[in-house]
Amino acid sequence: MDPYKSFETERLILKPTSEEDASFIYELLNTPKWIKYIGDRNVKSIEDAAEYIRRRMRPQLERLGFSNYTVIQKAANVKVGTCGLYDREGLEGIDIGFAFLPEHEKMGYAFEAANEIKRAGIEEFGISELKAITIKDNFASQKLLKKLGFYFCRTTFLPNDDEELLLFKYDHKAEQAAATRTV
């Protein structure tokens, strides 16, 4: 039993990614869209995926109580994607991210999962400001971020990466203040 929080929506379960998800993570990290929009993580086997989970995902979970979540479609009990909150090197604050297998895109799962992770970040983990990064031609992610209430802030670069990224921001306190002013 995982001691860390899992989350649930109407159609989805979001549980902290663990080594039992290695074959799914191997599949997801090698999809063409992951490689194009997120980058090749050099995960070339299920064993590499298990090591990636141990080395890249679990330490943050153990340190902060949140990290990467495997998204499971309840009705079919099928792993459809990932969504999470990341303490990413070179980015001040906590970053939200998401990725789904191609056959589970355009079903609303990304919005449903990311909206729940955003809620959890604010209500469960006390994060009032979230960031998100995407490459310039990932229009689907940009559209989803705007639907989640994020706004474009500026461009940025991550350490050891020469690709310019778009930085989006969500500020819960500012949104609350604006909502109070309009009442």
From TrEMBL:
UniProt keyword Protein biosynthesis, yes or no: no
Keywords: Transferase
Coiled coil: none
Pfam families listed in its UniProt record: Acetyltransf_3 (PF13302)
One example GO MF annotation: acyltransferase activity, transferring groups other than amino-acyl groups
Residue span, N-acetyltransferase domain: 12-172
Name by which UniProt lists this protein: Protein N-acetyltransferase, RimJ/RimL family
PANTHER family: GNAT FAMILY, PUTATIVE (AFU_ORTHOLOGUE AFUA_3G00765)-RELATED-RELATED, N-ACETYLTRANSFERASE DOMAIN-CONTAINING PROTEIN
SUPFAM superfamilies according to UniProt: Acyl-CoA N-acyltransferases (Nat) (SSF55729)
InterPro entries, per database record: Acyl_CoA_acyltransferase, GNAT_dom, N-acetyltransferase
PROSITE patterns the UniProt entry points to: GNAT
